């Protein structure tokens, strides 16, 4: 029973982000810790997988070759990759490990696994590549006979490409690079690049309403979806492939964002695009972050749809090495598969200049590349700092433009105060704007502070609660693209209209009559 | 009790489209009938409102001044404005008239009316301006104590405008022109112009997922919606104003398209835009309709997002007077609030030329205006022909590009055969493409044939059934932007994934425990 981990291939870290071989060595962790005053002088050791309680159920014989009970597979499927997940793994806490990890190879395997789980009261936690940062893949209940982690990674094929309609039928378990590799021969791309791209799957993106890398226009996975196949305990749901339809509430929009609570997405027809051939980018600096945000607002309302419109506030700009001295940096980028984009970039720069920005003459591409590479490296650095008991985590949101200045100030003031109170030192907050809409931006905050060894998770949970309170009070969403999972339930329960909660609970009860699908996520006791 | 009809203002037709004073006089009906061989020589008389059965319930005293029981109000709220509705009214069939017509002036009126209806088992049919062409506002059940038509037209205000975020809070009963009038002083427009614009409301657009006039990008009402307030029998649902959010399945997307079955939309924050200042348009002709569709596909996949990309097939082009001799006509238009658009129009024309089109040197604006004016006049002509017992109706759909040629041929062949068989003469089918997406178009078919007096509705119902069968077999949606109502149930029930139906029924049962909200629409016996 070793269906999951193959020792001949490059190893994923079971406790931290990404590839094991990319994890920071101890000396780099120590060096990095110099950035955060007050940390211990030695890293937490990289953890060994200790004893796990024996599985509480036997896998059914008919599915045995799809199911693993090995400690490495069970450990690797215990948590997602939030800061608090990494810390708990570092401290050797694997009490929440699933009893079984299933690796279905086909939709009928998924059907059989759900049938079996329903009959035996076994909780099913759908699992793509485990990049959840909201407790989305971690069982926390106690009302089930056992827990099955349902890992879709063996279902990773692009099954069909329609070159007339520019769409592709893709299995839910395909990781980002894997599906792009399969689309490349056609000249296509899904063009959906979340930060987790290497270690997240199409199914995960769909189930969590993932936001892509691009700032405007069709960047959300929702908008790239043509149709879905979803295995529910009461049957398989398949929506028709339709470019648009006004026939009732959208079936796909109910499953998008359902986070494994209503069914298991097994495949989807996705709208793909020709690969961009024309790209241009630049940076604009601002001495006043308020001006910078107003410039971003102007850009977002001008109908120019930049591919990149990422504003780094002074702290974020300093950390990324793109500017100092209290300057904010706006990264602007334009892309097209069809036509030159320089004129559009020039219009964007003009707009930003009108709002007090200073365009840099050169280096737009290098700045974008530098940003992107530090962006992709960030989770490994996070893990290195986590081993030094630093608190390193993010929270992201969206609000309307009329609220953003006040929200920004409130987060700095109130979350800053909470950090000080909880950790005893001020820590650091930085902010970037990742997505922009005509009616509002999506600010993304990073928190870095000194934790106390053994208290890291508790301290972060308190800071996070303070952050959720500030967001909620300003009616900013508890998450723009990180999903709800279990960690965001307090904010989500406050934000979600109660009649919609009534409808969602009823839909859940009807589709999942045995209550086995990802219990505690979105609805029910968390 | 005359809350509804005010005799001092211009009169809406109770039996047909729009303004009474725009209805065709008898001699024009007769002249028009020359277009359709085989019609009677005299029009059906414009109907008088005959005796109506007395209301089966007394309105509650506390709501009496919000409720009308006058025959004109009850007659005007009996049907929508489908061909079959007009014909039944012309033939004096008002057996489905609601017992009461309510005109709430505030959300609390709506709450009180739903409470009262729930307690007394009175069916509630939410009513905007009654432009449904799918039986969406017509009660057909027999399990309720009485029927209340809930007319939102007194709630027609733009309540608030946020000029920073470019959004407006608008009451659901506002007709198109009324809300545009209120936005104009701000330089804003909702820029949502369905054909029914003059005689449909924001709430109706939201409840039916209306498609606007524009061919690409943000044209559906869904995408213009920032947040919704909905009165359900179990409480008021209000989503937060958010430009984007990944917090669970979208609450708004459940209510969008719910067609009054889950609640009554009372107001919404809508994303508004600056009024366009730059416009350019032109026409391109094609000798081969297949080439024309391929040109439209190329345009839709080029990332140019034309405001107008309306393809008229040879029949449609001939009827509208824009081309003859078997030519198809593509109307292309580009708009922007910010910058000149001529370059973009030139790119579009180049693309169309590459696919065999011939650009006309002049007259784009005139052609667009001519099209638009005949488009808005069409429903009045339809009513004139209906009085001559002609069958004049449309059906619209959407499908992926890989299916469109085959679907187009199948509709002409099979629906054409059905018309011949049912009416005894071939009739006419024409087609236009109204909306385009990278992965497919939305074809819109018109049928004109000679009906037999007294049998018009039955004949159309048979033709429509044949059309729905063809659409379903080709997995083309039963409706792109006309909603489901009661008339589209056979096609909708076939198309909707069964697990989604299970979820929707459960949500409905939870939100509408007394089963009073628009019974027979979307779910339940139709």
UniProtKB/TrEMBL annotation, chains A, B:
Keywords, sorted A to Z: FAD, Flavoprotein
Ranges annotated as spanning the membrane: none
Entries under PROSITE patterns matching the protein: FAD_PCMH
Domain of life: Bacteria
Residue ranges of the region described as Disordered: 47-75
Binding site for FAD: 126-132, 259-265
SUPFAM superfamilies named in the record: FAD-binding/transporter-associated domain-like, FAD-linked oxidases, C-terminal domain
Pfam families: FAD-oxidase_C (PF02913), FAD_binding_4 (PF01565)
Listed GO MF terms: alkylglycerone-phosphate synthase activity; FAD binding
Residues the record lists as binding substrate: 382
Positions annotated as active site in the UniProt record: 444
Site for Important for enzyme activity, residues: 310
Protein name: Alkyldihydroxyacetonephosphate synthase
UniProt similarity note: Belongs to the FAD-binding oxidoreductase/transferase type 4 family.
GO biological process: lipid biosynthetic process
Gene, per the UniProt record: agpS
Organism field: Planosporangium mesophilum
Entry cofactors: FAD
Keyword Ribosomal protein: no
Domain (FAD-binding PCMH-type) ranges: 94-275
């Amino acid at each position: 029973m070793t269906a999951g981990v193959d020792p001949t291939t490059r190893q994923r870290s079971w406790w931290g982000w990404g590839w094991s071989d990319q994890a920071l060595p101890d000396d780099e962790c120590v060096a990095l810790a110099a950035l955060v005053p007050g940390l211990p002088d030695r890293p937490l050791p990289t953890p060994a997988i200790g004893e796990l309680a024996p599985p509480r159920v036997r896998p059914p014989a008919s599915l045995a070759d799809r199911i693993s009970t090995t400690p490495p597979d069970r450990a690797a499927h215990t948590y997602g990759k939030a800061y608090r997940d990494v810390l708990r793994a570092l401290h050797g806490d694997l009490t929440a490990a699933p009893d079984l990890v299933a690796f279905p190879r086909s939709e009928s395997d998924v059907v059989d696994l759900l049938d079996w789980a329903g009959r035996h009261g076994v909780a099913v936690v759908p699992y793509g590549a485990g990049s959840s940062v909201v407790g989305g893949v971690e069982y926390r209940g106690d009302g089930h006979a056992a827990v099955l982690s349902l890992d879709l990674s063996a279902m990773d094929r692009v099954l069909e490409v329609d070159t007339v309609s520019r769409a592709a039928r893709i299995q839910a378990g395909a990781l980002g690079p894997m599906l792009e590799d399969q689309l490349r021969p056609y000249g296509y791309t899904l063009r959906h690049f979340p930060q987790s791209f290497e270690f997240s799957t199409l199914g995960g993106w769909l189930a969590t309403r993932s936001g892509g890398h691009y700032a405007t226009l069709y960047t959300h996975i929702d908008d790239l979806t043509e149709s879905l196949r979803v295995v529910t305990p009461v049957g398989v749901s398949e929506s028709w492939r339709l470019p648009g339809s006004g026939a009732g509430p959208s079936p796909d929009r109910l499953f998008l964002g359902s986070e494994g609570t209503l069914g298991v997405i097994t495949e989807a027809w996705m709208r793909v695009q020709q690969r961009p051939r024309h790209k241009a980018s630049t940076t604009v600096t601002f001495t006043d972050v308020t001006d910078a945000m107003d410039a971003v607002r102007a850009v977002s309302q001008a109908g120019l749809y930049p591919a990149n419109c990422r504003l780094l506030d002074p702290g974020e700009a300093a950390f990324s090495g793109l500017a100092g001295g209290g300057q904010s940096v706006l990264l602007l980028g334009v892309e097209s598969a069809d036509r030159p984009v320089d004129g559009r970039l020039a219009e964007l720069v003009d707009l930003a200049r009108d709002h007090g920005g200073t365009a840099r003459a050169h280096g737009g591409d290098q700045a974008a590349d530098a940003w992107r590479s530090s962006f992709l490296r960030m989770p490994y650095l996070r893990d290195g700092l986590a081993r030094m008991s630093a608190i390193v985590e993010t929270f992201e949101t969206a609000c309307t433009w009329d609220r953003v200045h006040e929200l920004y100030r409130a987060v700095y003031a109130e979350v800053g105060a909470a950090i000080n109170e909880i950790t005893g030192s001020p820590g650091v907050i930085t902010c970037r704007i990742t997505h922009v809409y005509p009616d509002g931006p999506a600010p993304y905050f990073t928190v870095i502070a000194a934790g106390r060894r053994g208290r890291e998770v508790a301290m972060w949970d308190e800071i996070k609660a303070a952050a959720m309170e500030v967001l909620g009070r300003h009616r900013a969403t508890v998450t723009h693209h990180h999903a709800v999972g279990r960690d965001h339930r307090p904010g989500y329960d406050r934000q979600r209209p109660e009649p919609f909660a009534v409808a969602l609970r009823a839909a859940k009860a009807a589709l999942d009559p045995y209550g086995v699908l990802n219990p505690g996520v979105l609805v029910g006791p968390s």
